[in-house]
Amino acid sequence: MPIRTVVATAQGQGQRRNDFAHATEGELVIFPLVCDRDMANPDGGCGCNRSFEGVDSRKATTTAVVADVDLTYSEYVDAILASQHRFGLTNHRRGDAVEEADELLDMFKDWPVGTVVEKRGVRVQQRHIVRRTGGTPR
């Protein structure tokens, strides 16, 4: 049975002047560590307090999309833990990854698949896609 979580997307990029999409399209994303400089300001120069982080690429994006991903819960936790270890967080244990997985799964369990979301500090919200003339989403 698939899990409902979020993956990196370029959908909705460009609506904010400080958007970026460096993560690989479709990869699992988690919440990054937030630096002291950006802690109180989602629009700070680093960008860590307004972004999601790719589990495989370890690169950031300001937009993610709700998706049903063909992984078991255990595989999802393993992916998060492996990512933390690759990043050098070798003191993180399975319990830390379980906590992060549970937070993400609980947060998005009732969101419709295809919903584009953004992170603004501690708040995650739907990003409303603005259509330009000609119908091209932005």
Quaternary state of the chains: single chain
Specify the structural class.
Answer: alpha+beta
Q: What share of residues are in beta strands?
A: 15-25%
Question: Level of helix content?
Answer: 10-25%
Q: How would you sum up this structure, described in words?
A:
With about 140 residues, the chain is α+β, with helices and mostly antiparallel strands. It has one domain (about 5-125). It has helices at about 75-85, 95-110, and strands at about 5-10, 30, 50-55, 60, 65-70, 115-120, 125. The strands form 2 sheets. It has a 4-stranded antiparallel sheet, covered by helices on one side. A hairpin with a 5-residue loop joins strand 3 and strand 4 (about 60). About 30% of the residues are buried. Pfam families: DUF7715. InterPro entries: DUF7715. This is DUF7715 domain-containing protein.
